[in-house]
Amino acid sequence: MKQKPEGKSNSKVRVGIDVGGTFTHAVVLDAETLEMLEKVKVHTTHTAKEGVARGIIDALQLLLDKAKIEPERVTFIAHSTTQATNALLEGDVATVGIVGMGSGVNAFMANISTQVGKIELAPGKFLKTHHRFIDTSQPLKEEAVIAVLDDLVKQGAGAIAVSEAFAVDNGDNERKVVELARSKGILATCGSEVSQLYGLKVRTRTAVINASMLPRMLESANMTESSVRGAGIKAPLMIMRSDGGVMDISAMRERPILTMLSGPAAGVAAAMMYLHISDGIFLEVGGTSTDISAIVNGKARIKPGEIGGHRIYTNTLDVRTVGVAGGSMPRIKSGNPGEVIDIGPRSAHIAGLKYVAFAEKPISLKSRLIQPFEGDPKDYLELSESEGSDETQARYTLTPTCASNYLGLVPDDDCAKGNHEAISAAFESLGKELSTDPKKIATDMLTLASAKNEAVVQALIKDNKLDHSMVTLVGGGGGAAAIVPFLAKKMNLPHKLSQHSDVVSAIGVALALIRETVERQVVNPTNDDILRLRDEAQTAVLKMGADPASIEVHVEIDSRANIIRATAVGATSVTDTDKLKHDLTDEEKLQLAAESMHAQTSTVTMKAGTDHFSVYSGKATAKKFFGLLQSEINPIRVVDRSGNIRLQIRDGDCLVSTPSESVRAINQLVEAHSQWGDAGKVIPSIFLLAGPKLVDLSGLMDASQVTTLSAPEVEKLPADAKVVTIASIDR
Q1: In what order do the strands lie in the sheet with 645-649?
Q2: Which of 101, 185, 522, 721 would staple 717 via disulfide (CB 3.0–4.6 Å)?
């Protein structure tokens, strides 16, 4: 993706707006070429009356003016938001009236389970609730429901959450109460609207938190949408979800809880859609903190949501935050020699200091140790000009950005590239004061920063069972060059830095896919159950505007919890990105595959090829029990026409077939590579290359489920098309 001054005057564009802790960034991309046409940033408006929505609107208006984009050219517009997260952290939520319901022998327990009381959102911040119960053994009476609603509003409820036992099987009563509330102008939601999983207490808690956000989030959404429409943009307004996809604004109005942590999700979306990471660790490095996440088989890892230590029925990306980044301040132990003893969590920006790296010219600086805020350690480094009064002196500090520049780790075209003369002068001056080699000071700063990030990276590799040999560290965010190159060298891992790293999250928002996840609890699901859920997820993203040709659905089964989960993703319009890039030759793709395997090209062979993908296999040795046992494995890489590695498998096998023979190929690979354990037969993870799609059929229990879900993917292919079935073997 190359930046250019302006696109074709009639080309369609995509707009992405990312709300960060300090700045709100906005970008506009050419919808066909995906070239970045313009970028802007404004300060994030945490304290504005309108919240962060004010900054979103300001960024959009500035972007359209600066890029000279006519509103009718905008075909896609989306933004992330910290509004929901801020509301929870600050307790800026409505008091919620709970209407609990149940019938017969379940009424007593339903009454108890729907009384969730006061919910702690953050230390010292609580969500207040009032509760009323309706026995639904007899049909609901409208006047009785209205009386309950009126009573809750009189108690101070600003929104209503309706929750009935077993409403996941039949939600008619919940929907009726919600409709009555909305007809009276009361904001309302219900348990079956936010989750289809059993567990009345957790479902009620989720509905209550969702309801508490409605007043603030609807105000923000209405203001943002009004601004977008006022600018003449007719494209649907999309909002980033916490699982890395986007949803339309009407879906957000029903389930604002899904936008929690949508800020970090934007960076992960960029890692998948822009940087095409198949297996790796993505580090989005800001000035104060680093958000770290794992991507496996081209998908971000998901975890159940929690608020105040309590589980809720919504999924979020597994993003882990470390309090060290590009602007972290060093702590110094004075002496002869002195040394750097820690770095962070206080950052230069928060402390009101400038980076030496971005000084316009070398400055004579004197050092002193400060306590930026009450409660902070008193040994943070501040550098100030040797001349001038305290009021006129510019105040600086050295940061990992400065250290990485000093050690030559920042590429020339990176946004973190600083003034080398100013940086060198500052490190050499500090080195004299501490009687220490200035390069050691810089190295110690980065070593301390790396140790904090490395612990999290190693945990993500372990938790997600990533093969160390296939992991790449990928850096995004304005501070990526300050952290990632040194960390990668320390961990002996390959790394790459994102192009346009300072706005990579906004790019991720602009490229994000519409996403919906549907979950059901079903004991011993039939193939019809699985197909029904797949179709429901696909229909949901179609309703939000996804192009049918772009939709992919991944179904997984959690046998321990008896949960079927279908996740559908799709683009609002199909852009054939293969045509936007130069097709690589077979030799070039072979070289990329070999490099990914850390092997010589002579040991790698092309096992299969289609119009869209090439499949390469190599040979390697796996060691167990401290090297006493060895076995031969066959690494597999799937490379698309443009050279993106779309799938990495440590040990695998593949077969080529026609669409009609794909069932036979699946069964053959499943039988050849299944293993037996305490839980019985465990089948290998199966992937399908069908036309332009790489279909993920992992996470299923048996071959019949795999073939059931593969059928819709191959049925429309030409009879003579090549279908490649790949098995991931866990020896």
Answers
A1: 605-609, 613-617, 636-640, 645-649
A2: 721
pTM as predicted: 0.86
Q: How far is 438 from 453, CA to CA, in rounded Å?
A: 23
The rounded distance, in Å, linking the Cα atoms of 318 and 297 is 15
Ranges of the chain with pLDDT below 70: 1-9, 386-392, 573-582, 624-628, 679, 731
d(CA 527, CA 516): 21
What are the extents of the domains in the chain?
Answer: 93-209, 328-444, 513-570, 577-728
Q: How far, in Å, are 106, 493, 680 from residue 113 at the CA level?
A: 10, 49, 36
729 token code pair: 């073997």
Collapse the DSSP code of 54 into the 3-class scheme (helix H, G, I; strand E, B; otherwise coil) and give the result. helix
Other CB atoms within 10 A of residue 271 CB: 27
Peptide bond into 718 cis (omega under 30): no
- Label residue 598 left, alpha or beta by phi (over 0 means left) and psi (-120 to 50 means alpha): left
> What pLDDT is recorded for position 579?
47
Q: What gap in Å lies between CA 23 and CA 26, rounded to an integer? A: 10
Among 12, 162, 38, CA closest to 507: 38
Q: Which residues are within 8 A (CB) of 421 and not within 5 positions of it... i.e. 6 or more apart?
A: 361, 362
Distances (CA, A) of 122 to 117, 203, 712: 15, 20, 46
CA distances for 52 relative to 80, 95, 284, 528, angstroms: 10, 22, 21, 45
Going from the C-alpha of 204 to that of each of 80, 115, 218, the distances in angstroms are: 26, 8, 21
Q: What is the spatial distance between Cα 353 and Cα 394, in angstroms, rounded to a whole number?
A: 8
The CATH code of domain 93-209 reads: 3.40.50
Q: Give the C-alpha separation, 335 to 427, whole Å.
A: 17
Buried/exposed 446-461: b ≥16 CB within 10 Å, e otherwise = bbbbbebbeebbeebb
pLDDT tens-digit profile of 582-629?
A: 678 999 999 999 999 989 999 999 999 999 999 999 998 877 666 667
User: What CA–CA distance (Å, rounded) separates 605 from 582?
Assistant: 22
* Tokens encoding 293: 């996440």
